[in-house]
């Protein structure tokens, strides 16, 4: 029964050759990215790759050294933050401790000159969207971490911005709260149809919430694609290494095919013949009996029960570690002899 903040036509967002330098250090090396109207795109990558900087350039909290950012087609590179019409949520709870939940939520509206009663009404609507309208009178210290982030979300949405920017909004929360709020953010985003850029270093989070993911590495975008696409067809070793839990194994490439784990698999992309390293996903390796003739021999180093599946680390006879995912009921003893065999799947190779 809650009404969404006044809805607007969704805007697209583009980065065009965005370069950012801090002094002599180049942090963004020409970022190009087009986010479609109403889309949720995650910027995913290891710590220090420039995700936050890219988001801050989009928000207007940092000025690009070169290149441009556009919102709804308009070049906003010289537009101050408060006029870019973006809502932001950060990792650390950024609520004002001395203001009530309602006062925190209406803050942006009051600053824009919205009359107090109207601002309070809209704040309560926004709090309704995140399921917190009943806590409007409370103060931040009386809320859990998850509730504080919901207030931060309500505060970001209350002005009906054209774009929502989320910078690791869940990383300070414990696991259960994190996945709950993650799914809620996604449902809300879909319902409002708001164009959203979501920064995270957590691949599971990115895979779960995104329409598309932009994988960043060392100040560049390595690949942009739907979660399935990135997972199944990583365009570069950096993407293969970052998405999934691959083992990196020595391989020999001959005629565009990789010889690895006693099998021959097709190679993703172009790769010259010669020694290489292949990225092998745990779910693409089968565990066989020691008496089997397929695959290669090894011994169990470690076996982890993960609830729905079990993940086992096998050391091959030539000393390499292979991660295998298999049925949870299949128990293995430390030091047990097994064989591991690769399924016939295309592999990323470097
Ligand atoms: P994290 O997840 O750890 O925040 P990130 O991918 O978001 O990583 P950024 O915060 O964008 O990365 O930082 C990218 C690089 O830019 C880092 O090496 C960081 O030290 C550097 N950097 C960021 N802000 C500044 C600044 N104001 N002055 C100098 N260097 C900076």
Structure, explained:
With about 350 residues, the chain is α+β, with helices and mostly antiparallel strands. The protein has two domains: about 15-230, Rossmann fold; about 245-350, Nucleic acid-binding proteins (OB fold (Dihydrolipoamide Acetyltransferase, E2P)), CATH 2.40.50. It contains eight helices and 20 strands. It has helices at about 50-60, 100-110, 115-130, 145-155, 175-190, 205-210, 225-230, 235-240; strands at about 15-20, 25-35, 40-45, 65-70, 75, 85-90, 165, 195-200, 210-215, 220-225, 245-255, 255-260, 265, 275-280, 285-290, 295-305, 310-315, 320-325, 335-340, 350. The strands form four sheets. The protein has a six-stranded mixed beta sheet, with helices on both faces. Strands 13-12-11-14-20 form a five-stranded antiparallel beta sheet. A five-stranded antiparallel beta sheet has the order 15-19-16-17-18, with no helix packed on it. A hairpin with a 2-residue loop joins strand 9 and strand 10 (about 220-225). The chain is elongated. The structure holds adenosine-5'-triphosphate (ATP). Adenosine-5'-triphosphate binds near residues 27, 45, 47, 48 and 50. Adenosine-5'-triphosphate binds near residues 50 and 52. Its EC number is 7.6.2.9.
Question: Could you name the key traits of this structure?
Answer:
350 residues; alpha+beta; Rossmann fold; OB fold (Dihydrolipoamide Acetyltransferase, E2P); six-stranded mixed β-sheet; five-stranded antiparallel β-sheet; 8 helices; 20 strands; 24% helix; binds adenosine-5'-triphosphate
């Amino acid at each position: 029964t809650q009404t969404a903040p006044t809805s607007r036509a969704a805007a697209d967002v583009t980065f065009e050759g965005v370069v950012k330098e801090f002094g002599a250090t180049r942090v963004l090396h020409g970022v190009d990215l087009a986010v479609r109207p109403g889309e949720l795109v995650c910027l995913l990558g290891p710590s220090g790759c420039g995700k936050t900087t890219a988001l801050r350039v989009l928000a207007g909290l940092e000025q690009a050294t070169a290149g441009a950012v556009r919102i709804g087609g308009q070049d906003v590179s010289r537009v101050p933050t408060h006029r870019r019409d973006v809502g932001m949520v950060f990792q650390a709870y950024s609520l004002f401790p001395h203001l009530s939940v309602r006062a925190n939520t209406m803050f942006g509206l009051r600053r824009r000159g919205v009359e107090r009663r109207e601002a309070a009404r809209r704040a309560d609507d926004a709090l309704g969207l995140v399921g917190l309208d009943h806590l409007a009178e409370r103060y931040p210290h009386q809320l859990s971490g998850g509730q504080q982030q919901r207030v931060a979300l309500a505060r970001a949405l209350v002005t009906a911005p054209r774009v929502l920017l989320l910078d690791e909004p869940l990383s300070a929360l414990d696991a259960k709260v994190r996945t709950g709020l993650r799914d809620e953010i996604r449902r809300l985003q879909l319902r409002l149809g708001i164009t959203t850029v979501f920064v995270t270093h957590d691949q599971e989070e990115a895979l779960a919430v995104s329409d598309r993911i932009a994988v960043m590495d060392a100040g560049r975008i390595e690949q942009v694609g739907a979660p399935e696409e990135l997972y199944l067809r990583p365009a570069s070793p950096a993407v293969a290494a970052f998405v999934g839990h691959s083992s990196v194994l020595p391989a020999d490439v001959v005629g565009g095919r990789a010889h690895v784990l006693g099998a021959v698999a097709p190679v993703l992309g172009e790769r010259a013949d010669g020694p290489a390293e292949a990225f092998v996903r745990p779910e693409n390796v089968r565990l066989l009996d020691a008496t089997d003739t397929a695959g290669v021999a090894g011994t169990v180093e470690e076996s982890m029960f993960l609830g729905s599946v079990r993940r086992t680390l096998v050391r091959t006879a030539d000393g390499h570690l292979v991660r295998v995912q298999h049925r949870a009921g299949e128990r293995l003893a430390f030091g047990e002899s097994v064989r591991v065999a690769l399924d016939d799947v295309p592999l990323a190779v470097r």
